[in-house]
Amino acid sequence: MWAIDGDRTYATARTAYGKPPVRLVAAKPALRVVHVERPLVERVVAPVEVSLPVREGQRLGAVQVLARGKVIASSPLVAANTVERPGVVGRVGFYAGRTFDHLGGLLG
Fold first, then answer.
1. Which residue of 5, 14, 58, 77 could cross-link 24, Cys pair, CB 3.0 to 4.6 Å?
2. For residue 6, which of 86, 87, 73 has the smallest C-alpha distance?
3. Alpha carbon of 87 to those of 19, 22, 93, 94: distances in Å?
4. Is the pTM value of this prediction over 0.90?
5. ∠76-73-46 over CA atoms, to 5°?
6. What pLDDT is attached to residue 81?
7. pLDDT tens digits, 52-93
8. 66: buried, middle or exposed (CB in 10 Å: 19+, 13-18, 0-12)?
9. How many helices (H) and strands (E) does the chain have?
10. Is the bond preceding residue 53 a cis peptide, omega within 30 degrees?
C-alpha cells in the first residue's frame, strides 16, 4: 500500500499578488506493508500562505503517516511548481486594481 503517494497533492498554499496557489506534493513516495484492519492517521503540516518567489522542489511542509501512534512513513512536502514574484510594475498594478475595487465597493 502506498502510505505516501508521489502523485497526490497534499495541500495548497496561497501566494500573493493574485498569483496561482502552490500545490504541495510529497518529495518521495513511501510504500509500506500494513494490516488491512489497522487504521492509519495522516498528519500534514503545511503553510496556508507562502512568500514569493517559490521554486519547484522547494521544501514547504511535511506529511507523516501513523499507525497506532507510531510514524510508519514520512516525507517532506515540496512545491510542485514555480511561482515567480512579479516585478515592480506588476506589484503596482495589483495594488492599483485592489484600490479601485475597494473604492468601487464604497461608492456602490
1. 77
2. 73
3. 12, 19, 10, 11
4. no
5. 35
6. 94
7. 999 999 999 999 999 889 999 999 999 999 999 876 766 666
8. middle
9. 1, 7
10. yes
